[in-house]
């Protein structure tokens, strides 16, 4: 026969287990909140948001936004290093896959179609841009075995296909 004392003992044990589970969940939530806050914190020194997506409303779609992007990273090397880390987090199994993913985030296909890597065929040179350096350093950060030349070749391929991708987006 089960007594009231036995039932209370069982109930107390279950309550203790539930409290442990709630404590574990609370600790996990605190850790997740800390990570989220760290990823979206504002740099106290410069007052700039860490995320380049937020700072520049990416992808870039015009000359004025590109000039602002370029000037910011030319003047602020610390922010450039943070951007390299952020862009490299986009990942990609292969080098071209990374360039495709990062390029799509940074610049629209229609605007990218106005560039060639070396500036040939009446297009602007992409090679001279700080955005090019951002892609190269991010790619080399992610793909340790890649050389600068490897990355340049993949950026060039990506730029060549920009007009085609822009056309497909409109259809």
UniProtKB/TrEMBL annotation:
Residues 55-136 form the DUF4806 domain. InterPro entries: DUF4806. It holds the Pfam family DUF4806. It comes from the Eukaryota. PANTHER family: SI:CH211-262H13.3-RELATED, SI:CH211-262H13.3-RELATED-RELATED. This is DUF4806 domain-containing protein.
């Amino acid at each position: 026969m089960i007594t009231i004392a036995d039932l209370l003992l069982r109930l107390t044990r279950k309550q203790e287990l539930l409290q442990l589970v709630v404590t574990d969940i609370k600790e996990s939530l605190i850790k997740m909140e800390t990570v989220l806050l760290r990823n979206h914190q504002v740099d106290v020194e410069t007052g700039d948001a860490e995320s380049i997506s937020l700072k520049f409303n990416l992808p870039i779609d015009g000359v004025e936004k590109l000039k602002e992007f370029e000037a910011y990273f030319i003047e602020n090397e610390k922010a450039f290093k943070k951007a390299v880390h952020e862009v490299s987090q986009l990942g990609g199994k292969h080098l071209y896959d990374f360039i495709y993913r990062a390029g799509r985030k940074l610049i629209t296909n229609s605007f990218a179609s106005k560039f060639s890597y070396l500036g040939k065929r009446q297009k602007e040179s992409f090679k001279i841009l700080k955005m090019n350096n951002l892609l190269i350093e991010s790619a080399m950060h992610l793909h340790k075995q890649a050389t600068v030349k490897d990355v340049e070749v993949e950026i060039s391929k990506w730029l060549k296909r920009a007009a085609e991708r822009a056309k497909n987006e409109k259809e």
